[in-house]
Specification:
The structure is a single chain. Helix content is 45%, strand content 10%. It is mainly α. It has a domain at 82-289 and 485-515: Glycosyltransferase (Alpha/alpha barrel), CATH 1.50.10.10. The protein has a 3-stranded antiparallel beta sheet with strand order 3-4-5. A hairpin with a 2-residue loop joins strand 11 and strand 12. The chain is globular, with a radius of gyration of 21 Å. The relative contact order is 0.15. Bound molecules: 2-acetamido-2-deoxy-beta-D-glucopyranose (6 copies). One 2-acetamido-2-deoxy-beta-D-glucopyranose is lined by residues 47, 51, 54, 438, 441, 445. The active site is at 126 (proton donor), 270, 378 (proton donor), 412. Keywords: Calcium, Disulfide bond, Glycoprotein, Glycosidase, Hydrolase, Metal-binding, Signal. GO terms for molecular function: calcium ion binding; mannosyl-oligosaccharide 1,2-alpha-mannosidase activity.
């Protein structure tokens, strides 16, 4: 969740002047022709590992231990508090790919991080899903099925020690009248920015903080996150829940009350819904209330937010809402929804949710194959009354138009294909993921790594933004790899009985009931 700045949500959903690429191009010819001698899944998995190693080498040479590589200029940036975000986010992917040298470079480094100080604003949410989750996942693997990859056991113990150190530094965020945390923190003076918090930023802590409590034995971490979450599970005022289970986006930290009634499965809201069912996967005995809220949200989504574009009634998208009014607009970020419905359907034994998830997965696939690059856009719409003049033909043909053509190395579409493949065994989803990987690998590669691009509907991507996000390592390359890789206990289960559950940044945790 993805995801990932919460602020992206509502702001980008308000249609304003975006640069619209010119219409039509079909799926790139190369992708159609290639099918004749398609490589084996083992060869595909190895190709993804090669891309991971190219990205890591560029980062290690020019940016480590800073947060991100700027691949065009061979420079670095520190957008995540300068604690080495790409290194920590890459750990669980290096583990599942069994790249022992990289695993040890990362776990040698992690004990040296000082999580108690930083000069820049700290996001409780981003820090939790990337750093805390990256270390806890590494700990679960290295004390479990991949323990032979660690050269030094002390570095494994340090993953839990550093998780505790980080959580202790963050925990003052929860010292509010309601227990709903502040999200934006200043460690230097233990203050915050005073702003309201968001649905995803409050509702995407509970898996990580509960896992930390279970591993460390300090139940305070779980209590803090679950107290904040309790206001989301029992939303007030009633008007903030326009349909059962579907709630607003902004929460007053003093009162714990919602400030609006708008939202959806989009950025800013997304992983709150994602975690309702994932908590049940993590521990069905402790989190059945969360599952009940997920079922309400899922049923309301199917009943009230389902939308079929006028020129392409065969496609299914999920609309955004303000009260009970719908906006026909969505995002790359929201495309995790298909995978989440599939996971819920498998875990609850309800084919209806799996089928609905598969229809969403197919809709997001269309946003990829319609563009000049074979990569889907950041924001898209399908309101017949709002089609940009120069995308009329594109809309008639494809059933959506592009509102923001950026691609910033996001994972959600491929993530959902991964769940679709695990649930159905249909190799079509492996082919979709391979085609997307080839398109991304060809279009975003530049200089010493891979970069965000400006325009998915211009051949070549319309220019580079010179930024390699840490979730490129954590998510995109992990899902591209796992969908082709052989069976392993950490793969999403085929039958709904999971031994591991993936956080929103794709860091797998061992589930409580199997530990
Ligand atoms: C489409 O129209 C928008 C808005 O007027 C403009 O910014 C964009 O450059 C146009 N795109 C093309 C490819 O002509
Ligand atoms: C448990 O964690 C809380 C929150 O960071 C901390 O205040 C407390 O001291 C910890 N308890 C122990 C026994 O370490
Ligand atoms: C705390 O520090 C931050 C960043 O240095 C600053 O913007 C903020 O105003 C300070 N807050 C207080 C309450 O001093
Ligand atoms: C949150 O609620 C408190 C107490 O009612 C109020 O003083 C404050 O203005 C509210 N903040 C926002 C952002 O609405
Ligand atoms: C929903 O649409 C109706 C009719 O256009 C309008 O009166 C109402 O204010 C809208 N509600 C919200 C929450 O935007
Ligand atoms: C992926 O991109 C790299 C860098 O351009 C290239 O060397 C490699 O051949 C590409 N892989 C595939 C499978 O196309």
């Amino acid at each position: 969740m993805v995801r990932r700045t919460a602020a992206i949500a509502i702001a980008t959903l308000v249609p304003f002047a975006f640069a619209f690429p010119h219409s039509p191009p079909l799926a790139p010819k190369a992708l159609n022709d290639r099918r004749y001698d398609s490589p084996s899944t083992a060869e595909r998995a190895q190709a993804v590992i090669n891309t991971f190693r190219i990205s890591w080498d560029g980062y290690y040479k020019y940016a480590f231990p800073h947060d991100e590589l700027l691949p065009v200029t061979n420079d670095f940036s520190d957008s995540r508090n300068a604690w080495g975000a790409s290194a920590v986010d890459a750990l669980s992917t290096a583990l599942v790919m069994q790249q022992k040298d990289i695993v040890n470079q990362i776990i040698e480094y992690i004990p040296t991080i000082d999580y108690t100080t930083t000069a820049t604003e700290v996001s409780l949410f981003e820090t939790t899903i990337r750093y805390l989750a990256g270390m806890l996942s590494g700990y679960d693997f290295l004390t479990g099925p991949l323990s032979d990859l660690a050269e030094n056991k002390d570095n494994v113990d340090a993953l839990l020690k550093q998780s505790i150190s980080l959580a202790n530094a963050l925990s003052y965020a929860f010292e509010t009248p309601s227990g709903v945390p502040w999200n934006n923190l200043f460690f230097n003076n233990r203050s915050n920015d005073g702003s309201a918090n968001g649905l995803a930023t409050v509702g995407t802590l509970v898996l990580e903080w509960t896992r930390l409590a279970d591993l460390s034995g300090n139940t305070t971490y779980a209590s803090l996150a679950q107290k904040g979450e309790s206001y989301l599970l029992n939303p007030k005022p009633a008007s903030s829940e326009p349909w059962p289970g579907l709630v607003g986006s902004s929460i007053n930290v003093t009162t714990g009350e919602f400030l609006d009634a708008s939202g959806g499965w989009v950025g800013g809201d997304d992983s709150f819904y994602e975690y309702l069912i994932k908590m049940f996967v993590y521990d069905s005995s402790r989190f059945s209330t969360y599952k009940d809220r997920w079922v309400l949200a899922a049923d309301s989504t199917i009943a009230h937010l389902t939308s079929h574009p006028q020129p392409r009634p065969d496609l299914t998208f999920v609309a955004y809402y303000n009260g009970q009014n719908l906006s026909l607009i969505s995002q790359h970020l929201a495309c995790f929804d298909g995978g989440n419905f599939i996971l819920g359907g498998q875990v609850l034994g309800k084919q209806e949710y799996i089928d609905y998830g598969l229809s969403l997965v197919a809709g997001c696939h269309e946003t990829y194959i319609a563009t000049a690059t074979g990569i889907g856009p950041e924001v898209f719409g399908w309101d017949p009354a709002s089609v940009p003049a120069n995308q009329t033909a594109f809309f008639q043909k494809n059933g959506f138009y592009i509102l923001n053509g950026n691609y910033i190395l996001r994972p959600e579409v491929i993530e959902s294909w991964y769940y679709a493949f695990r649930a159905t065994g249909d190799t079509k989803y492996q082919d979709w993921a391979w085609d997307a990987y080839l398109a991304i690998n060809a279009t975003t590669h530049v200089g010493s790594g891979y970069s965000s691009i400006n325009d998915v509907n211009v051949a070549g991507g319309g220019g580079f933004q010179d930024f390699q996000e840490s979730f490129w390592f954590a998510e995109v390359l992990k899902y591209c790899y796992l969908i082709q890789a052989e069976e392993a206990e950490w793969q999403v289960a085929k039958d709904g009985r999971n031994s591991w559950v993936f956080n929103t940044e794709a860091h797998p945790f061992k589930v409580a009931s199997s530990s």
